[in-house]
Structure formats: structure tokens, C-alpha cells
Amino acid sequence: MAAKNLPLEPGDFYFNESGLMVFTEQYHRKRGSCCQSGCRHCPYGFQKEGKPKGKESGINGGERG
Question: Euclidean distance between the first and final Cα of the chain, in Å?
Fold first, then answer.
């Protein structure tokens, strides 16, 4: 299933201390499905194996939401 291209709105993301964009639970709920990337604010409860929830996860030099 392809990800929906949603316009970003206030509250959908923030920039962390490293300047990377982090998607919020609000954005993930609007998206409507889990991408299974281990996002920091996943409302669907997905966790990558061997990675405790809340740890930063990098992709393309950035952090998954």
C-alpha cells in the first residue's frame, strides 16, 4: 500500500534537537496506516525488533517520525 501524500499542517511535525523533522501521532493518524518503520510517535504500536520504543531511528540521514 502506497503512503498518502498529505499536506503538512500545524501539529503534524516538529524539529528535534538535531534539526531533523519528526512526524507526530497526529500526522500518523491522518495518514491512516502504519509504515512499519518504527516511527517515534507511531499510534499503531509498531516496534522494530531489538529496538526499544522511543529510540531514534535513522533513514536517509534523518529520523523517522
Answer: 18
Give the pTM: 0.65
Q: Which residues pair with 24 in a beta bridge?
A: none
Q: Are 39 and 12 in contact (CB under 8 A)?
A: no
| All residues at 6 or more sequence positions from 29 whose CB lies less than 8 Å from its CB, including other chains | 43
Q: What is the three-class DSSP state of 48?
A: coil
What nine digits make up the cell of 33?
496506516
Q: What DSSP designation does 31 have?
A: H
Q: Is the pLDDT of residue 49 over 60?
A: yes
pLDDT mean over 1-5: 64
User: Coil, strand, or helix at residue 26?
Assistant: helix
Beta bridge partners of 23: 13
